[in-house]
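Weekly modeling sync, notes
Attendees: S.R. (lead), two postdocs, one rotation student

Agenda item 3: backlog of single-chain predictions. S.R. asked that every request posted to the team notebook include the full sequence so nobody has to chase files. The rotation student volunteered to paste the first one in as an example of the format we agreed on. Action items at the bottom.

Example entry:
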Amino acid sequence: MLDSRWWPGVESSNPVHPGDENPGTVTIRKATRMSVRSLGQVFQPKHNALNALRLLLALSVIIWHSFPLSGVFVSFAAGRQLLGHIGVDSFFAISGFLIMSSWIRRPHWKSFLRARVLRIFPAFWVCLVVTAVVFAPLSLVLRHQAFPPDFVAGAISYVVKNAGLYIFDFGIAGTPTLVPYPGVWDGALWTLMWEFLCYLALLVLGIVGLLRWKTVTVVLFAIALLGVIVTSYGPVENYFVVNGSPLGLMFIAGALMYQFQERVPVSRTLIVLAAVIVLGSSWLPEYRVIAALPLAYLVIVLGALGSNPRLSITNDFSYGTYIYGFPVAQLLASAGAVALGVPAFAILSIAATIPLAALSWFLIEKPSLRLKNSRRPVLVVDGTHTTEAS
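Predicted structure, as returned to the notebook:
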């Protein structure tokens, strides 16, 4: 439930006509203006729905992947663009907001880098191993196929070559086979490299002191936006520009939301307007040209408004859900689950992924995050006690 305290709507029961100015009128107008809170006033670091929202976004990625993994093409271009990108883009916007917050509150490069490495790599490495040692062999057994002669070498290559986040091998010795989307075990992992590169870029900017000037982030947003434009509407086809510009744009949009949080108003009207812009821009060839900031505003503000304790999830299953959703779906496809149709296949994929995500959190991610600091100091920011973001 969203916190109704932050919705504007303080109105006078007595209408005021021109020329009727009096102290009471001034007081009422001030109250009306004050009822519109800023994002900085609304956001509570320990009481928000961002983790819950990230889990929903991870689930939306599984739902979207259920279409191509079932061999179903979404012909409606606007829907294909929105469903195919909004989940990951929202992830990057939230990440930009939280990671900028982490650096601003505790600008120490060693602890920052250690926290980022421990958040991304351990669970990622385990996922690679599980895919190579469990999912790939099991898919062959389910299909009653013989193991290829190079299977062991392919499994080792899959783990070793991909361990640095850049995905060189998407399949393992030709597997998965006899599925609608063959040769790819985890099509979601490629974004993690860009996520980590955003972390490193922010770290470098912080070390050299450029993050002290908000104008720098604005300029970087403009550069990323230009990259999106020239790759979507222009002749540029460079792999790194094509893939890095849109994801970097969303990360920077989230970072801007944090830097300008005291100037970002939170209102029902703006939330609805942002949603309309995001939906409307999906008819464009590249919706982020218009929707990057509105989407960042939408997801971050909704997450901030969710201050109900029930929405403040401390066990974050979103990362595990994201990295295991694709290979679990491919394994189910190997078992013939695509015959159930996209809706049932998506539900089955989610049901099978969540337990793995929980295991990843409790056995790998949470223990790894405890290694960030020997003790987590409580920092004071504008009088508010908070701790470093994960």
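Discussion: group reviewed the output briefly. The longest strand covers residues 379-381.
Action items: rotation student to repeat for the remaining queue; S.R. to check formatting next week.
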